[in-house]
Amino acid sequence: MLTRIDHIGIACRNLDETVRFYRETYGFEVTHEEVNEEQGVREAMLRINGTDDGGASYLQLLEPIREDSPVARFLARNGEGVHHIAFGTADVAGAAAAVGGRGVRVLDAAPRSGSMGSLITFLHPKDCGGVLTELVQAREDGPGH
Ligand code: CMX
Ligand code: CO
C-alpha cells in the first residue's frame, strides 16, 4: 500500500539560504520549485534517490508565504526543523481510507494538490505518535503510467 519514503518536509524561514546549505554541504540540487497557495508555502524539492517502486525520495524544503499557514505556525512554535514525513503510494485515496479505518484522523476530506502534480493528504500528528504524516500519489504513480 505504502511503497516508499516519498519525502521529508523541512520547515525553514529562508528557502534560498536553506537550498544553499543543502547544496554546499551535501551537493544536493533542486529538482523543482513551486508555490502552493493552498498549503501556504514556497517549496523546493531535492531528489535524493530513486526507489524500487519506480518513484523517488526527496527532501522538501518549505518556507511559509503567509502567517496563518501550518508551516508559519510550526516555525513560531518550534523554530526551523523537520515538519513532516511523507509516504508514497499508487492510490492515495485508497491508502487514506485504509489508514482512516484504523482510527487515524485524515485531515483532508479528499486529496489535494501537492508538488509536481501529485495528490496529497495529511494524517493528524496526534494520531501518529507526534509525527505529521503525509500520503502522496506522484503524478507518475497513477494508472496509465
Ligand atoms: N508535527 C508534529 N506535531 C505538530 C505539527 C507537526 N508538524 N504541527 C502541529 N503539531 C501539534 C502541535 O504541537 C500541537 O500539539 P499540542 O496540542 O500538544 O501543543 C497540536 O499539533 C495542534 O497544534 P496547532 O498549533 O493547533 O497546529 P495547527 O493549527 O497548525 O494544526 C495540523 C496542526 C497538523 C492540523 C496542521 O498543521 C495541518 O493541517 N497540517 C497539514 C497541512 C500542512 O502541514 N501543509 C504544509 C506542508 C505542505 C506539503 O507538504 O506539501
Ligand atoms: Co510534503
Sum this structure up briefly.
GO terms for molecular function: metal ion binding; methylmalonyl-CoA epimerase activity. This protein is α+β, with helices and mostly antiparallel strands and 145 residues long.
Overview of this protein structure:
The chain has one domain (4-141): 2,3-Dihydroxybiphenyl 1,2-Dioxygenase, domain 1. It is built from 3 helices and 8 strands, in the order E-H-E-E-E-H-E-H-E-E-E. It has helices spanning 15-26, 70-78, 92-100; strands at residues 4-11, 32-36, 41-50, 56-64, 81-88, 112-113, 119-123, 133-137. An 8-stranded mixed sheet has the order 2-3-4-1-5-8-7-6. The relative contact order is 0.21. It is of the alpha+beta class and 145 residues long. Carboxymethyldethia coenzyme *A binds at residues 9, 36, 39, 41, 60, 62, 70-71, 73-74, 83-84, 107, 114, 120, 122, 125-126, 130, 132, 134.
